Amino acid sequence: MDNEKIEILERALARERMARKEAENILEQKSLELYYLAQQFKEANYALESLVARKNIELEGVFKNIIDAYCVLDLYGNVLEMNSATYSLLGVSKGSKTINLLEFVAPEEKVKTQEAVMEILKSGTYQDLRVKIISRQGEFKYLHINASLILDGYGDPVAIQGIARDVTQEKIMQNELIESEDRLKLIIQNLDTGVFLEDENRVTVIGNNKLFEMFYIPHTIDTFPGNDITNGEKESKTLFLEPEKFEQRIHEIFEKKEPVIGDELRMVDGKILERNYTPFIRDGVFKGHLWSFKDVTVTKKYSASLEAQKQKFSNIIANMNLGLVEVTLDKKAVFVNNSFEALTGYSESELLGESINDLLQNTTEAKLFFNQRVDETVKDGSNSFEGQIITKQGERRDWLISSAPNYDINGIVIGSIGVVLDITDLKALQKTKEQLLTKLEQSNTELQEYAHIVSHDLKSPLRSIFALVSWLKEDNKDVFTETSLENIQLIEATLEKMELLISDVLNYSSVTSDTLEAKSVDLNLVVEDLHKILYFPDHINLRVINKLPTIQGDQTRLQQLFQNLISNAIRFIDKEKGLIEIDVEEQELYYKFSISDNGVGIEEKYFEKIFMIFQSLNEDKKSSGIGLSIVKKIVDLHKGKIWLNSEVGKGTTFYFTLVK
Amino acid sequence: MVNNLSILFIEDDVVETMKMNRTLVKLGLIHAIQEAKNGEEALRILMTKENLPDIILLDLNMPKVNGLEFLKIIKADERLRYIPTIVLTTSNNHKDLLECYEIGIAGYVLKPLKYEDYVSKMEKLLAYWSVNELIKA
């Protein structure tokens, strides 16, 4: 062995030793590192453990303190663990004995809950379970529950954990929403306006009964399907008088998508509809629209008839013979009719806006008078007055004006309306009438006077003749023959009859309403007086059967009435024992008198004639034939009637009535 | 004692005047009759104021100044108004009668148709005034 070799060996050995030493050092170092690492790990593990523990505690705290109820159940629903929210939700106190959650479920929800539990067991979770429970206190609560299954290390289910939220408030709000939707639906359903709402695709969202009724659609709000209206208008257009136009207009409206109000539609059945269209546009995007149809037939007909009435009255006003003018509070004309133009001579354009009384009057007094009357009307209400105006032509006309305040729709006086009647001619007529009456009265008086003068002038010559004849007789008593003397006597008798006639004519003409005086007249006294004045032959008796009344009349004329009838009776009695009876019967409005005699009687054919003037039935020299005419005239003037009953040879009864 | 009267007889009718005169003769009365044909003439007579009549018999219907006018005039005269005036007329017009009494008359006698009735009325009338005391002018 060479040294070299040894040396080499030795050097090799040395290197080996060195290496081993190195390795040992490394090992030692590594093991130290490992130690440190283990040390570190141990620390880390410890830290981790404590972290986990901390987290556990935190988690437990979270569960216990979260607002939502959290609980863990066994597979039969018995509570293993639950937080305080759960306690308060169920209304149980802590430390209660075993609680089974299923007990709280409302009876009608039990089946649903069972099913949910089965689902959890099957699939491991169940979300959005909504269940109604009854708390220990008997309160109803609505819960929203999410639940999952807990498995052990071998993957077998051991428990169910769940989180529940009280959604009672939500549920209430939801119910309210439903209710208000129902209400809205009810309102729409019962609206008197036919409506339907369409979405942006023209699918009907809602339509009401009124609409269906209007368009004869066999649906109700509940059965009407959401539908495309394009068919609707095609089906419905035949209901309208102008179907094409109806359809066209709908398309037009829909194209524009602008609100339309008050389109008038006339239907074949006579209905008149008013159509409104309201598009809904939100943020510039079309969202749908509302069609509404209102049946305005009655309103239309009413306003049509109103219009017709208005037209009628306008025509009447325009064409009536009465002038009509409407003035403002400051008396400026705002309306005149044709007649008013004709009455004033001014045209409408000349009248309107003018102060009417300034135009038609020319004196301050007259203007003031008319203005005051108008003011009175405005202040006190309807008024009527007469006045004179001056026409454009300068003619004075008499007007009768009826005026009334003019109100606006709020009942505030805004002026007055005058209706004018031109009474100029009437006035003239009235004046003429008055003049005529005065004249008539005058000529009546004159006639009366004339009758007196005539009777005087006629009587005077009679008197003279009488005197002269008397002297003739006196002076020639011894010369005249018997015949001559008889003739003279006849002359005298004729003169007497002539005088009686004149007196009676005068008397008859004096019986007029002018000379009639109305006083209380006791007819008993009248008859008593006559009994004394008149000549009653011994064989004639006058008897008053019932007491006579006192009536209103002319004493002289009433006396004349009785006198003429009684003296007639006396004159025509031809019996040995004459009887004149006066009687009275009271009627409602008048007295019926009768004067009867047992005289010669009158033939029926003369019943009318005897009342006519100069119709004497016999040639009695003492009768002028005027007596009964006077009687009739007096009865007439006392608003009575006269008639008679008679039998020739037996007697006559005159009846007459006098008003009470 | 019976007075003989001085009478102013106002009458336009000749026969009436004759009647009056004949009546006086027939009755044998001696009254002084002064005739006037109308009111005008009568006034002329009265205006002389000499020998005023005791009474006046007055017809109403006369030409010129008629009876009523005449009556008004003398009743307005201070002296003449005291002469009793009796109206002798045909008019039984109530209006005339009233007016006459209103102005002032001493009597109103209707002329009857019959002459005998006239005589009888005049006899009474004149007899009445004959026994009256009268203002002598």
UniProtKB/TrEMBL annotation, chain A:
Reaction it catalyzes: ATP + protein L-histidine = ADP + protein N-phospho-L-histidine
Gene3D superfamilies: 1.10.287.130, Histidine kinase-like ATPase, C-terminal domain (3.30.565.10), PAS domain (3.30.450.20)
EC nos: 2.7.13.3
Pfam families assigned: HATPase_c (PF02518), HisKA (PF00512), PAS (PF00989)
UniProt KW Phosphoprotein keyword: yes
Keywords assigned by UniProt, alphabetized: Coiled coil, Kinase, Phosphoprotein, Transferase
Domain PAC: from-to ranges: 127-179, 383-435
Residue span(s) of domain PAS: 55-124, 309-381
Recorded GO MF terms: phosphorelay sensor kinase activity
Domain Histidine kinase: 453-660
Coiled-coil residue spans: 6-33
Gene Ontology terms describing biological process: regulation of DNA-templated transcription
Broad enzyme group: transferase
Superkingdom field: Bacteria
Record-linked InterPro entries: HATPase_C_sf (IPR036890), HATPase_dom (IPR003594), His_kinase_dom (IPR005467), HisK_dim/P_dom (IPR003661), HisK_dim/P_sf (IPR036097), PAC (IPR001610), PAS (IPR000014), PAS-assoc_C (IPR000700)
UniProt name for this protein: histidine kinase
Organism: Ulvibacter litoralis
UniProtKB/TrEMBL annotation, chain B:
Pfam families per the UniProt record, alphabetical: Response_reg
PROSITE patterns assigned: RESPONSE_REGULATORY
Highest taxon above the source species: Bacteria
Gene3D superfamilies in alphabetical order: 3.40.50.2300
Biological process terms in GO annotation: phosphorelay signal transduction system
Record domain Response regulatory: where: 6-126
Modification type 4-aspartylphosphate: residues: D59
Keywords on record: Phosphoprotein
InterPro entries with a match to the protein in the record: CheY-like_superfamily, Sig_transdc_resp-reg_receiver, TCS_response_regulator
Name assigned to this protein: Response regulator receiver domain-containing protein
